[in-house]
Amino acid sequence: MNARIYDKYRTLLEAVSFAGRAHQGQLRKDKETPYACHPFRVCFIVRHVFGFDDPRMLSAALLHDTIEDTTTDFDDLEERFGAEIAGWVACLTKDKSLPEKEREQAYIAKLLEAPWQVQACKLADMFDNLMDLPALPPERRQHSLRRAEQYLAALKTRAAPQLQAPLKLVDELLKGCSC
Hints:
By secondary structure, this protein is mostly helical. It has a single domain (3-176), classed as Orthogonal Bundle (Hypothetical protein af1432), CATH 1.10.3210. It contains 10 helices and no strands. The chain has helices spanning 3-22, 37-49, 55-63, 66-69, 74-81, 83-91, 100-113, 116-131, 138-157, 164-176. Helix 1 runs parallel beside helix 3 (55-63).
């Protein structure tokens, strides 16, 4: 076995399994699709739509909702995937103990201070959520669109050069959405 290849991809493949187990039993908003499809799609978008192949980014994309939406905590991720990936996932996690307005402000501030790799994962998350917009009940679509607009506007203010193409793709997708 080639140890270099094994070491490079072991964490990523463990993240796939971990995300699948962590989201087991959860469903997307259409009440039919297993929730784990979302982080898998976000990972796919980071890799195949945005073109980033860093296994750390792909792992963070897979794990991006585990702290926020499962019983997983930061320590679980740090123990299994290391401080960097756990920290990146923490940057993608909203503090649900805060009131909504404060939570959103804190989340955006955290995203703006995050490494560009984390911002790319957020853009991929937004891309997938926008693609999935028709699955939302009509009364929730406007709220989701407003959030996406907020996040996109904020990320545009601190965009690293590597994010120009993903920002453009999300912007075009957002402009094409209608409710």
